[in-house]
Amino acid sequence: MAAARFAIHRLLAPAMLVLAFDGCHSALAQSTNQSSQSSDQSGSPSAQTVHERTGPYSSRTIRHIKVPVESSAPQELTQAEDAIQKQDYSSAEPLLHKVLDHDPANYVAWFDLGFVENALGKLDDSIAAYRKSVATKPDVFESNLNLGLQLAKTNQPDAERFLRAATKLKPSSQAAEGQSRAWLSLAHAMEKSKPEEALAAYRQAATVQPKDAEPHLSAGLLLENENQLADAEQEYKQALALDPKASDALTGLANIYMRGRRFREAEEFLRKLVALRPDQGAGHIQLGRVLAAEGKNEEAIPELQAGAKLSPQDVSAQRELADLYTAAGKNDLAESAHRALIAASPSDAELHRGLGQALMRQKKFPEAQNEFFTAVKLKPDFGEAYGDLATTFANTNRLPQIIISS
């Protein structure tokens, strides 16, 4: 029996999609991919393990599984493996083609070529190579999984076939983790077309890896999207029990409680999320919205301020903060905030009315009157602004300066 050397298989990895905030005042979408890497530094490339979680249809890959190859393997295959280890994919590609020109039944070379073509951004060529690998040796877990993931990435209908095949095959190493990944990948591929079967697949993954929070997170998101909120809540809670720092679960629970207007519970989990991710503006903004909905304006303001600073592109948060200043009686801050917003959007009637209200509360009636007049000029059916304009006229007994000037 010839001695065997080991080539490292490369698997495409599924992962969780972080849940979107669904705000009580306005919708807030946040998508975050989480990744983690670990490696076994045993000194031998064949023993190296790299596990990187990405999106379920991501083009990124992982080196993970060792596959026995006869010691008489072509020198070009060894050289290609070395180039792949160095991430020199352009050098590995022609070497693998040379191997396959002489030995078109070399399933390891086809598998490695699928990885290399993917890394080079040649998705169709990657799929073709993985198909050749599976056709040459259909009973390899890793080949079926990678092919299924690549097909899922391009929404091809036979993705399910190969992912399902992977769930029935034995991984070359770390069997439980590999099987769980196969069930997760299958579930992700079926979510839109077969949600009930996808949910069953997530539960299979949880059975295989009972200490992994990810199947519960994915199941929770699926159930939430299906409006099965009570079941989604339980899945998120199970995920939190396994991983108290699972931000996806905190977000999901906050989402559910906001949708049910259970603001006190939403506040609890949003505070945990903000403590865990203080540098992410979305959490602060959503916590500010929930606090405002509870009437806790003084607590809401610093959260919205922090969120607006961390997410300056979120104009809706800036507008809500300006309105919150007005509601809290902080009229000078409301005036400054509205002026900044108007500078960016001078034709927004709502903003001119907001500025007018802040000015009117400071008894700056002539300036307020001009803002209300601008608002009705921009929006002739703006009934509330006409009422405000009448109020300022009653206090000044004069026409707006803007009318006099014109």
Summarize the structure in words.
- The structure is a single chain.
- The protein is mostly helical.
- The chain has a domain at 329-406: Alpha Horseshoe (Serine Threonine Protein Phosphatase 5, Tetratricopeptide repeat).
- The chain contains 20 helices and 2 strands.
- The chain has helices spanning 75-85, 89-102, 107-119, 123-136, 141-153, 159-167, 175-190, 195-208, 214-225, 229-242, 247-259, 263-276, 281-293, 297-310, 315-327, 331-344, 349-361, 365-378, 383-396, 401-405; strands spanning 4-12, 61-70.
- The chain has a two-stranded antiparallel sheet with strand order 1-2.
- The longest helix is centred in the middle third of the chain and has 16 residues, at 175-190.
- The protein starts with a strand and ends with a helix.
- Mean pLDDT is 83; it is low at 1-66 and 402-406.
Relevant CATH superfamily of the domain at 329-406: Tetratricopeptide repeat domain
| Second-tier CATH architecture of the domain at 329-406 | Alpha Horseshoe
Assess the beta-strand content as a share of residues: under 5%
The main sheet orders its strands as 1-2
Structural class: mainly alpha
Helix content: 55-70%
Q: Spans of 5+ residues with little confidence (pLDDT < 50)?
A: 1-66, 402-406
Oligomer: single chain
Q: Which series of helices and strands comes N to C?
A: EEHHHHHHHHHHHHHHHHHHHH
Q: Sum up the overall morphology in one term.
A: elongated
